Amino acid sequence: MKKGFGSKRLLDQISEGSVALTRVSTYAFLWLPLIMVVITSFDSRDFLYFPPAGFSLKWYVSFLNYPTFMEGFRNSIILTSCTISVGLAIGIPSSLAIVRHQFRGKELLNTLILSPLIIPGVVIGSSLLYFFVSIGLIQSFPKLVIAHVIITFPYVLRTCSACLIGMDRSIEEAAMNLGANEYQTFMKITLPLMKPGVIAGAVFAFIVSFDDVATTAFLTDAYTYTFPIALVGYMRQFFDPLIAAASAFLILLTVVMLLVIEKAMGIHKFIGLR
Amino acid sequence: MKAKETFLSPVVSVNSPMMLNSKKLKRFLPTTLMLLPIVLLITVFFAALFSTLIMSFWTFSPGKPMSIERTFTLYNYIDFLTTPAYIKVLSDTMYISIASTILGVLAAYPIAYSIARSESFRTRKILLALILMVFLMSTVARLYAIIEILGNYGVINIILQQLGFPPIHFINTPFAVIIGGLHWTVPLAVLSLIGPIQLIDPSLGDAAQILGANKFQTFMKITLPLSIPGITAAIALCFAGGVAMFVTPMMLGGGLVDMMSNRIYYRFQGGGGGAVNYPAGSAMAAILLLISIAISYLINRVLTRRLRVS
Known about the structure:
The structure holds two protein chains of two kinds.
Chain A: H1 2-41, H2 58-64, H3 67-100, H4 106-114, H5 121-135, H6 140-165, H7 169-177, H8 182-193, H9 195-211, H10 227-237, H11 241-264, H12 267-270
Chain B: H1 23-28, H2 31-55, E1 59-60, E2 68-69, H3 75-82, H4 84-117, H5 121-136, H6 139-150, H7 155-162, H8 174-199, H9 202-210, H10 215-226, H11 228-243, H12 247-252, H13 260-269, H14 278-309
Antiparallel strand pairs in B: 1-2
Helix pairs in contact in B: 2-14, 3-14, 4-8, 4-11, 5-8, 6-8, 8-11, 9-10, 11-14, 13-14
C-alpha cells in the first residue's frame, strides 16, 4: 500500500514536471523572439547580429525619417479611423436590430455577417478586386474602406451584441416612465451602457484593420498603401535593424492597445471570460 | 460559424428573450432602416464572392479585355487539379495548416489549463495578458522576430557557428512557415480553451484522485474528455486561420514554400513566374474557399453531435 502511494507521487511529479517544462518553453517560444526584436532595435551596428554591440537610437531615427513608412503609417491611421467610424455607425444600429427586434431571416443574416471570419483574406481581396473593377470603382481609398469594414464588421457586431444581451432593460423602461422620449433614452441610457462593447469593437477593428495584408494587398496602388504593406515591401528587399525599430514600435502599439482594453473593460471581459 | 463564438464574446444568442415590447422605439428606429447599411454591405460582399465563382468558369484568353472571354469552361479547375506543381501547393497548404493547428493546440492546452485553474486573480491576469498580447501582435513584427531567431544570420545560427557547427537553413522551408503559424495558433488556441476548461468542475478530478487515480489517469479519464468541445473549437479556429495564411509563407517561405493564398495573389497581381490570369486565380480562390468552409462545417457538425450525445 505504502509503495503504491509512493509510486503514485513519483508519477505525478514526473508528469507535472514535464507539463511545467512544456509550459515554460511555450511561453519562451512566444516571447523570446519579441524581446530579441526590442533588444536589436537599439543596436549600434549597421547590420543584424547578436549579441548587440552598443546602444544607439539611430534605427529609430531612420525609421521616423523613412518617407515610405511615414506615408504608410499616415494612410493606415486614416484608413483605420474611417473603418472604425463606418463600422460603428453601421454596427450599433444593426446590433440593436438583431438583438432586440424580431424579423424573418435573422439567423441567416447573422451567419452571413459573421462569414468573413472563416473566409480567407486573399479570397475576400481578390473577389473585391474584380468586383470593384467591374462596377467602375477605381480609387483605392474607398475600396480599402469597404474591404476593411467587411473584414472588421463581425468583431464590431459581436462585441456590441454581447453588451446589449447582458443589458438590464429596466433602466431604459424607468427612463421612459419618467418621461424621456425614445431619442433621449437611447442617447442617455442605451448608448452609455453599450460603451464597453463599442470600445472593444473599436479596438478589435483597429487591430484587424491596422494589421491586414492579405485583403489589402489586392486593393492598394502605388500611392495608396498601408503601413504593413510598406513594411512587407521593405522586408522583401532589405533586412536590417530598421525593421527591428518598426517592429518594436508595433510591439509598443500592442501594449498600448492592451492597456486601453484593460482600462475600458478588463482583459477578462474582452475575451469573454468570467 | 458556431465554432467562432468561443472566445470572441460571451455566449451570443441572437434570439435573446429580452425582445423589445415598446412599439414606440420601433417607430423611432424601424428595423429595416437599422439593417439597411449592413444588408447593403453584405450584398456587396456576396456579389463579389459570387462574381469570383462565375469567373472561375470563364476562359482565359490574352488579347481580350482583362484577358477574359466569357465562355464556359472547366479548364481552370482541371488544370489546377492535374498540374503537379499546384497539387504540391495544395498539399503544402494542408500539411502546414494541419501541423500548426495540432502542434498549436497541444502546446496551448497546458497553458490554458494553468490559467483556467490558477488560484490567484493577479497571476491569472498577468498570464492572460502575456498570451493576449502575442495574439494581438502585428504579423509583421512577429515574422521579423522569427526571422531574427531562425534566419541564416539569426540567433540560432550565430550560436551554432560559435560552437563550430555548420549553419542550418531554416528559412524558406515548410518548417519555418509552421513555426510562424504556431506563433499565432498557440495564443489563439489558449484563448479559446480557457473558457471551456473553466467550465469543468474541479471536484470531479479531486474525486478521481481520492479514489486512487494518479494525475495522468485523472487527466486522461476526466479532464481531457470533458474539454473535447473546447479543443474542437480551438482546432476549427486555428485551421481556418492556418489555411488562409498569406504573409507568413510569403516572408518565411520566400517564394520556395507557397501556400494557396500566395499562388492566388500571383494570379491576380503578378509575380511568382506566372502570367496574370483572373479565371485561374478565381478557380484557386474557389478551391481555397471550399476547403475552409468544408472544414469549419465538418468540425461544427462533429462538435454539435458530440454535444447532443453527452
